[in-house]
Amino acid sequence: MGGIRTAGDLVARMQLHRKMRLPEAKAYVADKLRVSTRDLSDEVAMRELREELDIGVVTSVPGAARGLEAKARISDLLGVTIPSVERLKRKVGGIG
Amino acid sequence: MAIHVTRMGDGHAVEMTTDEIRADILAGTEDAADRGGIPALSEGERDYLLDLFTYPGKIVGVEPGSEVVLTDDGSVNAMYGAQSSSGVGVPVSREMGIRIYERAFAMDTMEVGHPDYSFKPVRPIIALEQQCMESVLHSTIVPMYYGAMPNLALYANPDGPFGNPADLLPMGKIDEARAAQEEAAAMCTRDMVYVSKRMAAVGADGINFDTTASAGDAEFLATLLAVEEVARTTDLSIEVGMAAEFVLGMHGKVEYDGVRLAGLYPHKQVKLVEKAGAHVFGPVVNTNTRRSTAWNVARAVTFVKACCEAATIPIHANVGIGVGGVPMCETPPTSMVTRASVAMVHIARVDGL
Hints:
The complex is a heterodimer. By secondary structure, chain A is an all-alpha fold. In chain A, 58% of the residues lie in helices and 0% in strands. The longest helix of chain A has 12 residues, at 22-33. The radius of gyration of chain A is 14 Å and the shape is globular. The N and C termini of chain A lie far apart (39 Å). In chain B, strand 1 (3-7) and strand 2 form a beta hairpin. Chain B is an alpha/beta fold. Chain B is built from twelve helices and nine strands. The chains are: A mainly alpha, B alpha/beta. Chains A and B meet through helix 1, helix 4 and helix 5 of A and helix 6 of B.
């Protein structure tokens, strides 16, 4: 689908974590992002939206969420548990 | 009659008339239907394939909005590996390769995998694999699997402690061959569960049991039992990718959930994989190098369509070298890879590739 160039990673997460078939996974992500399912694989539309949502963009933008930072925001946006994000929460629990 | 340049299952170019391609598509789907006891493709679906294989353009694709999710096996072996992994020998580390796949190749998912790519050799170096996974999880965004093959053959002599059924069966030692496979399967399950739990402990998204049942029905059972245990005890997403379209009966008697495993085709394999608790299933249909790619793609999508219709979990069909209708050669022509992929999306209705 285009990975982080589009919304491929987000649709993949719904398949992997919730066993959703493709139409259901696309509809779920489109609803959360408030776009059409066709927009999910539109490189231009998703490039702008990913930066706006700060969930990681394919080009290297200083200050944009990277790696675990982006996944923490994706976990919140999609309402899915991402194991590495949960581990981060456990590691920083009580800090600050 | 128009002449079209297409490919044989071994990758070599071949000239075929429209009628010859049409006949091969019909023969391919009828072969799958006969072997699998499943419906053949309809006339409309065969016409769609004919359009694909007579279209003069080199590369074909699906229309916008019909794209599917990609998962991968073998990790970045294809980047730093040698010929045996179809590797191009680029001197990059696994971490670097995974970042390149995510950011430059725009993969939807990725996986960490050892160059040896089997669970048995990973067990003694699990800490190294965990470190790589931890490092990758910090720096990447796409879902991250750990991938390896059950590879039951590694547990048999001379590589492992148990008898080798390939030696025992020709000597007529049927009971000994079965016993050896059962012992090996138990150790294989143990190793798969061990590695999976260690990956879950460091925060991996999933585990990919790749090339499952390469050594036959006992290996399939070992994997299904590992899937059960991993699904019960971890939050890992579990993908099971097969080695072949047909589960070989090297043992012949092993069952799972009351179903004999030998002889199962993809539409029946997936029901057991679902029952065990997996999240994604990767069916394989082998390529016949002596037939045209049109014949092979028609045959492959017939099997995978039946699998998709039977499934409740996402289906990511294998369309790599020598499977899913793709020619069996080191440099599969993009013309045929894209045709096989489009057919899988539009006819088989796969959830991913």
